[in-house]
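Service request form, structural biology core

Requester: graduate student, group of Dr. S.
Request type: structure prediction, single chain
Budget code: on file
Notes: please return the result as structure tokens.

Sequence provided:
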Amino acid sequence: MYRKASYGSELDKLIQLLSKLPGLGPRSARRAALQLIKRKDLLMRPLSTALAEVAEHVNPCSTCGNLDTSDPCHICDNSRRDNATLCVVEDVGDLWALERAGAYRGRYHVIGGTLSALDGVGPDDLNITPLIERASDSLVTEIIIATNATVDGQTTAHYIADRLKDCNVTVSRLAHGVPVGGELDYLDDGTLTAALKSRRAF
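Core staff response, request fulfilled:
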């Protein structure tokens, strides 16, 4: 009869916690825990210190929802950013991805997820009302909706666009289509359809 391996309560707890992280299942969590233990001075102790410091000092920005050690965050506090555009993203990870690309120099607004009837997530569960308030600022002229190209992401985008109708702003949506370096033969039907609908003059 198969018995679950036991490594001691402390190690079991570490593995269980690691396995809850995105992309880490039980097997990957065991490997990660083993590496941490083998390299205590180089990895485990610095990691535990960093985790404690992040838990103590990093919080959501009260303006945009980004995570930072200051409030407002370094993006909201940057006077060189463009105040005329607000880019709406689902989560902080999406904000970080856009910043990493370096193609956008405006402001952000993190709504904290997507509308989902199946998961019981409604408009009141998301950071949408503060977005409408920010969109009413006379400095803001464009809202870029950058939710993901999923069913829930599209539903959320349409809902936000509808809520913004009374605001004096242009509402735009990120284009979806062929990725840079992508070959048509390997793309799914939805991506190809989106690419055709988002075509522009050459």
